[in-house]
Write a structure and sequence with these properties.
83% of the residues lie in helices and 0% in strands. It is mainly alpha-helical. Helix 8 packs parallel to helix 9 and helix 8 packs antiparallel against helix 10.
């Protein structure tokens, strides 16, 4: 058991080392190309200059404030989508009528580009946080519903029938059989929805303003403040990577804590 865990830890360290090497190579090429004048600093500032600008906007508080605004919008929208999507997906799996009622709507809305609805959301809810939160919820609810539906329908029917035959109530079957068995796939759907929430938030802010990371990025671009633009882009990339890493850790912890 310990040897297997040691081998897994070594493998993970090797994967991290390879990933870090790839990133460092890209950074080195970026810095060398910018310093050699292969591209104008207006379009490709040196990486060191971007890092210096990143430190400046962090020190004066502008970037942390924008990040808090954007993450709060994404988080509230994702939570709202989860509260709606998970129960609806499970209910559709357990009720033919609900599946018949909602499946055509989901099939129509899921593949549509959600950002195209931004003008409507702005018209109805304004340019500030409410419209962006609701747009994030609208964009995230469909993958969550579909993932929750697939997770609930994949639960072994023998377990459900056995529990029902032993007198377990419908609520007991749901909370003691369906939800524990479906949880890993539901969590996978939430992991898919997380980057969707970030993408939708940043894009909506770029288009409509109203503060946040996307709005400041576009403002900087209009005034050709390239180091600030790249600093914000790198922050967006880093935040997405960090949140996905935390989701993976949370998924592993929740799987470990589930009874076998």
């Amino acid at each position: 058991m310990s040897s297997a865990m040691t081998a897994k830890a070594v493998s993970q360290r090797g994967l991290f080392a390879r990933s870090l090497t790839s990133v460092l190579v890209i950074v080195a090429i970026w810095e060398a190309a910018a310093r050699a004048g292969l591209a104008s600093s207006l379009f490709l500032p040196p990486f060191t200059k971007v890092i210096a600008e990143w430190w400046t906007v962090c020190a004066d508080g502008s970037l942390p404030l924008d990040l808090v605004v954007s993450l709060s919008r994404a988080a509230v929208g994702l939570c709202l989508a989860t509260v709606i999507g998970v129960p609806l997906g499970i209910a559709m799996a357990r009720s033919r009528f609900l599946h018949w009622l909602f499946d055509p709507v989901i099939a129509l809305a899921f593949p549509s580009p959600k950002i195209a609805f931004l003008p409507i959301f702005i018209l109805w809810f304004g340019i500030y946080s409410l419209s962006k939160i609701l747009l994030v919820a609208f964009a995230c609810v469909f993958p969550i519903v579909i993932g929750s539906f697939a997770a609930a329908t994949s639960v072994n029917r023998v377990l459900i029938w056995s529990a029902a035959s032993m007198g377990t109530s419908s609520a007991g079957v749901l909370f003691r059989i369906v939800l524990p068995a479906a949880w890993p796939r539901i969590f996978a759907a939430l992991r898919v929805a997380l980057p969707v929430s970030l993408i939708t938030t940043f894009t909506a802010e770029m288009v409509s303003g109203g503060g946040g990371m996307g709005a400041t990025l576009m403002y900087s671009q209009r005034f050709f403040e390239s180091p600030t633009v790249f600093a914000y882009i790198l922050t967006m990339l880093g935040v997405g990577l960090l949140l996905d890493f935390l989701m993976l850790k949370l998924q592993a912890a929740s799987a470990w804590s589930q009874p076998s």
